[in-house]
Fold:
Amino acid sequence: MDPSVVIDYLPACAQHYHEDYAIVVVDVIRATTTATTAISLGREVYPASTTDSAFILAGRLTDPLFVGELGGNVPYGFDLTNSHVQVAALTQIPSGFFTEDHRPIILVTSSGTRLLLNAVGAEAVYVSCLRNLSAVTDYLAGRYSHIAVLGAGTRGEFRREDQIGCAWLAEKLVQKGYRPETPRTRNLIDRWHGADLNIVREGRSAEYLKRSGQVHDLEFVLHHIDDLDVVPQLIDEKLVNVAEGSLSKQQGEGGGA
Structure:
């Protein structure tokens, strides 16, 4: 069968790809970057679509951390916002050694975790961001005939950072023999081929992070590209790293994430 890849976006789109597709969810700022970063540091991550489902899930876990945002605000009773920098800071101290704090994370976000859970029912569901493009590509290529790369979208908009994340992943799959399934998929690959990531600084997501004093998360995204050998797959309720040899490239070189 001729393998193909398609790009789409928004949480509601996932239902169109339940049959015969593996789905890859991309929410660069910030849900999938937060989840991938946490997993690379040994954390268990459990996505939830609402605060109610998060607190129900917490009853089955031991002392979980509540991480996330809804509409840009930290929900009542949560420990942290949806920040990969804050999550990494909990686990790693400046000397480069890691603490023993490995409390599981329950992650709730406005769009990313909703899309992730809407994707349940597909052949398989994965998470990608700019940190693990090659790892995800290498793992998926040849394993599935049809792959849907889905951007989370924010307030109905396909934000440029997610367009780039989806397009770069799809382009890598095309290089491995996958056919762009739609004109939009081909157009996005062509549009963002070799793009300068500084264009993300001009987007609405970047504006929000700057305005809310969270520019450190933006800088983290822009300076951590393809540095993790981590492939998170949603299995039952948990994101599980299914890549072999799953330490980050930086850790393998003696550094930190």
Summary: The chain has one domain: 4-238. Residues 21 and 252 are 33 Å apart (CA to CA). Confidence is low (pLDDT under 50) at residues 94-98, 246-257.
